[in-house]
Write a structure and sequence with these properties.
The structure holds 2 protein chains of 2 kinds.
Chain A: E1 3-7, H1 8-18, E2 23-26, H2 34-39, E3 46-49, H3 53-65, E4 70-75, H4 78-92, E5 98-104, H5 118-124, E6 128-129, H6 134-151, E7 155-160, H7 161-164, E8 166-171, H8 188-191, H9 195-218, E9 222-225, E10 228-236, H10 239-246, E11 250-255, E12 257-259, H11 263-272, E13 275-279, H12 285-292, H13 311-319, H14 343-353, E14 356-358, H15 383-394, E15 403-408, H16 409-425, E16 431-436, H17 465-471, E17 476-480, H18 485-497, E18 502-507, H19 511-516, E19 524-526, E20 545-548, E21 553-556, E22 576-578, E23 581-582, H20 588-591
Parallel strand pairs in A: 2-3, 2-4, 4-5, 5-7, 6-7, 10-11, 10-13, 14-15, 15-16, 16-18, 17-18
Antiparallel strand pairs in A: 1-8, 6-12, 9-11, 19-22, 20-21, 22-23
Chain B: E1 3-11, H1 16-29, E2 33-38, E3 48-56, E4 70-75, H2 78-83, E5 88-97, H3 104-107, H4 117-124, E6 128-131, H5 133-140, H6 146-155, H7 162-172, H8 178-193
Parallel strand pairs in B: 1-4, 4-5, 5-6
Antiparallel strand pairs in B: 1-3, 2-3
Helix pairs in contact in B: 1-7, 6-8
Classes of the chains: A alpha/beta, B alpha/beta.
Chain lengths: 594, 194
């Protein structure tokens, strides 16, 4: 069979494809996004972007109830949104195999927290697979469908950023279609979870766990690689690789199936090895369970319970090496809004007006960084609207002209609509921004219900954010182009003093889409004779403009500049030029200051 | 050469990932087990980006390179090269652009871009080679092919048939840019040869 270099995510998608999966659903979220992007390329699989993770799980459950194998994938925090159907599915079980992929983000490369979703598998009492490389990501996903159907249970496959976004060689196999079955007959005692039905199902869940424990004891994806008996490791997921590289001669109990744990095999391994260390990323998920069974091992007393592990961290923790770096501190290079980003203008206006802002999850979260420094609070998807209501009500609606909320287009469809309903229904007055750049930008420009295209690239009904806002009862809805700062600022000033809730939809497409469409741009130039070095232009936080300390002048990085003129609009002396012509803005007094 | 660890460091948008894709495929074709790692997500928006590529005649375990274990660092921006310098092996080679791009932290005035980055790197690691970004762009005619230029420079140190590199590049770059990228590759190879 041919071998191909695949990322962990691509391999999971391939595994699902080979296993004959019929339906796949997800909401994009780093590091999980490419799973659905990959599976969508197979014609045999129906694949969709759902508006949020809960819907994605429910769609996949529907397929599993209807007898067809299904997959849903999400980043770790996505499962918080989808937890409701997920837990009850553990009681009902399935007709066709059901696999949920949770892509966790140790080290928080692009997430708001570091929750270890393996806890969800134990919490919901379902089997858990932890692959350690791309080949296993494919193999375990296929195996997960067998386990799902053999034990009548949903299954979790847990990946992490490093697995999802690393590539390794994978042996490809053909797809095996599921055997044709009749549409399932009515089984209300299994699939209607009224308390009278749920109680016996609850007992079934415990019995199933017992059987799964037997499986865990005998499956060959839990295996010992014997080496020296004085040092041994118990590992799962990506940690296996680090340990093998650091301690190639040690004994290793490699666990690919980690809920329920093969406690008997662990006991046997620990008996035979002098010192055993459990190496796992984040929580002591395996370690605590081992200790609860009266087996003594080392673990988080040595290995950090925070951040990502790697060979250096593991060696340092175990051997107590303190290294002195010769390297001096280097200035950090955090991500920033792209040159020309339509969100930038909104942040400039909010900052000029001195408003306090509740943000949300997306590119616009970058508005928190200096020099924009324009966000005050942010928790989760959709929170950019609902939090504002609580803030306003806590201060008897007297600060509605000082605090505003903000979500993106995809975030609005995800979980912003319900927050908006809350504000209208409960007589809020707040001003809310929907930054509509016509894509799910932060995760890599995925389609959403507002873009008019599906994950499969087909054209579809394009939902109107404006009409939705009006339909839930917002009477003042503006739709504006955020590049016109004077106009935007005027509308914001009216909105915050309005006695009704107001929505301002800031609509212009993401720069990444414009680049992809082949749009051409004319970069600006700073006329250094005119520039007075006041740095007003620098305050727009654009990667394409910087300050020359020697000459005390601003200058444009011409490879990056797209000529959006945001910086030029801040210039008090009209020092910017485009195509050799000086850029002047008669309304500049309306842009700057309150 | 049983094992080669190559670390690529740059800024989001510079083509770090494409370069690491090419190196991975070349490694496979040359008969190695290969793993590569990258972090995308937030880093795409103009932040620091690194990608690790590991070739081994035996099995590669960790997808990431340990400190002081990189045989090569390919730097697309000199501050990013400096940021990764503790990854280089004592006898490793650093090939870096002299390109200077202020991070936002510097342009906003909160941090300082060190003045003598190149000298600092050479002082810490003497086997460091810099090329003039501007001159290379002039020669190859397009700033977007700098990544393939650096891949070309690296290829000089690898005992792998040129045709194999070309095959992979042709498959990985957009069809319209094949000629440009082959030229960039050759320029990179030749600059080291000289």
């Amino acid at each position: 069979m041919p071998k191909k270099l695949l990322s962990g995510n691509e391999a999971i998608a391939r595994g699902a494809y080979e296993a004959g999966v019929k339906v796949a659903a997800a909401y994009p979220g780093t590091p999980s996004t490419e799973i659905l992007e990959t599976i969508a390329k197979y014609n045999e699989v129906y694949a969709e972007w759902a508006p949020n993770e809960k819907v994605a799980v429910e769609v996949a459950i529907g397929s599993a109830f209807a007898g067809k194998r299904s997959l849903c994938a999400m980043k770790h925090v996505g499962l918080n949104v989808a937890a409701d159907p997920f837990f009850t599915l553990s009681y009902t079980g399935i007709e066709g195999g059901f696999v949920l992929v949770s892509a966790d983000d140790p080290g928080m490369h692009s997430s708001q927290n570091e929750q270890d979703n393996r806890n969800y598998a134990r919490f919901a009492k379902i089997p858990l697979f932890e692959p350690s490389d791309s080949q296993e990501a494919k193999d375990f996903t296929k195996l997960a469908y067998q386990v799902s159907e053999n034990f009548d249970t949903p299954v979790m496959v847990r990946s992490t950023t490093r697995l999802s976004h690393s590539k390794g060689l994978v042996e490809l196999e053909d797809r095996t279609e599921q055997e044709a079955k009749e549409f399932p007959k009515r089984q209300e005692k299994k699939y209607i979870t009224i308390p009278a039905h749920a109680r016996p199902l609850r007992v079934k869940v415990e019995r199933r766990l017992g059987k799964l424990k037997e499986y865990s004891e005998k499956t060959d994806i839990n295996r010992v690689e014997w080496g020296d008996k004085d040092l041994g490791f118990i590992v799962s997921g990506i940690s296996y690789n680090y340990v093998k590289e650091c301690y190639p001669y040690a004994s290793v109990l490699k666990l690919g199936f980690t809920n329920p744990l093969p406690i008997d095999r662990i006991r046997e391994f620990v008996k035979k090895v002098e010192k055993v260390i459990v190496v796992e990323e984040n929580d002591p998920f395996i370690e605590n369970e081992i200790k609860a069974n009266g087996i003594m091992v080392d673990g988080k007393n040595i290995i950090p319970n925070m951040g990502e592990l790697n060979t250096d961290v593991i060696k340092k923790s175990i051997e107590g090496i303190k290294e002195v770096s010769k390297k001096e501190a280097v200035p950090v290079r955090p991500p920033a809004l792209c040159p020309g980003c339509p969100h930038r203008g909104v942040f400039i206006v909010l900052r000029e007006l001195g408003l306090r802002v509740v943000g949300d999850i997306g590119c616009y979260t970058l508005g928190v960084l200096p020099p924009l420094s324009a966000l005050d609070w942010q928790v989760c998807m959709g929170g950019g609207i609902s939090l504002v209501q609580g803030i306003a009500k806590a201060w008897d609606d007297k600060i509605s002209d000082k605090v505003v909320g903000m979500v993106g287009d995809s975030t609005f469809f995800h979980s912003g609509i319900t927050g908006l309903i809350d504000i209208v229904y409960n007589k809020g007055l707040s001003t809310l921004f929907i930054l509509d750049n016509s894509t799910t930008a932060m995760t890599g420009t995925q389609e959403n219900p507002g873009t008019g295209r599906t994950l499969k690239g087909e054209s579809t009904k394009q939902l109107s954010i404006k009409k939705i806002c009006e339909a839930v009862g917002v009477e003042e809805v503006y739709e504006i182009d955020p590049y016109y700062l004077d106009n935007l600022k005027e509308i914001v000033k009216n909105a915050i003093s309005s006695p009704r809730p107001t929505v301002i939809i800031c609509k212009n497409s993401c720069m990444l889409l414009k680049f992809r469409a082949g749009e051409k741009f004319t970069p600006l130039k700073v006329n250094s004779e005119k520039c007075i070095g006041c740095k007003a232009c620098i305050s727009v936080a654009c990667p394409a403009i910087t300050y020359d300390k020697k000459n005390k002048k601003a200058f444009i990085v011409k490879e990056l500049c797209v000529g959006c003129e945001m910086c030029a609009k801040m210039c008090p002396v009209a020092a910017f030029e485009k195509d050799g012509k000086s850029l002047t803005y008669p309304n500049i007094h309306k842009i700057r200051g309150k | 050469m049983n094992e080669k660890n190559i670390l690529i460091a740059g800024v989001g948008g510079q083509g770090v990932i494409l370069a690491s894709e090419i190196l991975s495929e070349v490694g496979i074709k040359a008969g190695y087990d290969v793993k590569k790692s990258e972090i995308h997500g937030m880093s795409q928006r103009g932040g620091s980006v690194t990608s690790d590529v590991r070739w081994n005649k035996e099995k590669v375990y960790s997808p990431t390179i340990s400190k002081k274990s990189a045989d090569f660092i390919l730097g697309f921006e000199k501050l990013e090269t400096l940021r990764s310098i503790d990854m280089i092996k004592p006898d490793g080679v650093i090939i870096s652009s002299d390109y200077h791009l202020d991070p936002m932290t510097v342009s906003a005035g909160n941090q300082i871009y060190p003045e003598d980055v190149e000298e600092k790197i050479k002082k810490i690691h003497s086997r460091s080679y810099f090329f003039s970004n501007e001159e290379v762009i002039k020669k190859i005619g397009n700033p977007k092919a700098i990544n393939i230029f650096i891949v070309g420079a690296l290829s000089y140190f690898m005992d792998i048939d040129k045709e194999l590199w070309f095959d992979v590049i042709k498959n990985k770059v957009p069809p319209k840019t094949v000629e440009l990228n082959i030229k960039a590759f050759e320029e990179g190879y030749n600059i080291v040869k000289k």
